[in-house]
Amino acid sequence: MAAAEQQTSSQASHEQNWHGIVLQALKRNEIRLVPYVPDRVLTTLIKNLHADPFFTTFPAAREEEAVGIVSGAWMGGMRGAVLMQTSGFATLANVLASLAMPYQIPLILFVSERGTLGEFNYGQSLVCRTMRPVLDSLAMEHHTVTRLDEFEFIVDRSIKQAITTQAPVALILSPLLTGGKVFDK
Amino acid sequence: MTATSTPVRNTKVMNRFDLTSRLIGKLKNEEAVIGGIGNTNFDLWAAGHRPQNFYMLGSMGLAFPIALGVALAQPKRHVFALEGDGSLLMQLGSLSTIATLAPKNLTMVVMDNGIYQITGAQPTPAAAVSDLVAISIGSGLINSAWAADEEDFERLIDQSLSASGPALIGVRIDDKPGVGTTRRDPVQIRERFMLGLGVRQPL
Fold this sequence. Notes:
The structure holds two protein chains of two kinds. By secondary structure, chain A is an alpha/beta fold. Chain A is built from nine helices and seven strands. Chain B has one domain (about 10-195): 3-Layer(aba) Sandwich (Rossmann fold), CATH 3.40.50.970. Chain B has helices at about 15-25, 40-45, 65-75, 85-90, 95-100, 130-140, 150-160, 185-195; strands at about 30-35, 55, 80-85, 105-110, 115, 120-125, 145, 165-170. In chain B, a hairpin with a 5-residue loop joins β5 and β6. The interface of A and B includes residues 67 and 77 of A.
């Protein structure tokens, strides 16, 4: 076993899995407010956020609403992040273009990616194709995470960059990282 | 007086700028005020700029969610949100979220003229049939009421400052446009608001 691999596996055993890495990175960066619109892939993360008194986490009716909430909280001195799935991101073009970007708010989005690598619902695969063009057209920072060994670095650095540059970021969680959602019933 | 027929109510038709000025006149403790898009924040701007005012320049419907975020971040500061009826219709789900979280430092005001005044006074889909205060109560915001007149509005504002949960006040307003025009400088608006909330120190 190579040294690098040993290091990776000890880090992996410390933080175990992708949702544990998200939770620890949020905590490390003092991100306490986490509204979400749920997704199957995010279930364990959402459950663990609820179980941890460090976090104020709750469902919002729409992703746009959650973006409004964390934007207000940021201005009031409390850091937040929003969890959603791909189709939820597709409802956000207006709020990104009229609130997060022009007001320079460090909005942090975690998007569970549906619509690719085994999608079974054609509508999900179509809406997925709109996500990166929207992000690119706004010149908004985004990363698609596929590997567990890179995940902590990407999450931690992206959160810090968003806050220090006062610019939004979207972290897209690929099925390669999370396992995604597969057709089972 | 309103441009459209509205459900029968024994509430006086008032004026947005007048009500906004009455609210601002009552604020003595650096309360935050979030102004929804269009005429709502134009009148907030015209009522006298305060560092604790936040003016929205888009993202229609998000005045209440933004105010909720401020209220959660600063539980010791009272937060007011001013929103139009058309804007609220875009984000009715936020009423349930706010009812669930139930911050006691949040007062929401719905300026209801039944029309999209700024786009040419077209009636909203709710204008002739829906009661936004009843929707609010049904969403779980039990401390919701129509203001009968200006005095009643002031009474409800005072009451909300010491309430044990969030309050929503519906006001019927006329079809007049906003009195002022917000300077459309989003970064300066946000930065001044953060200074006003004590989150930022001046350079």
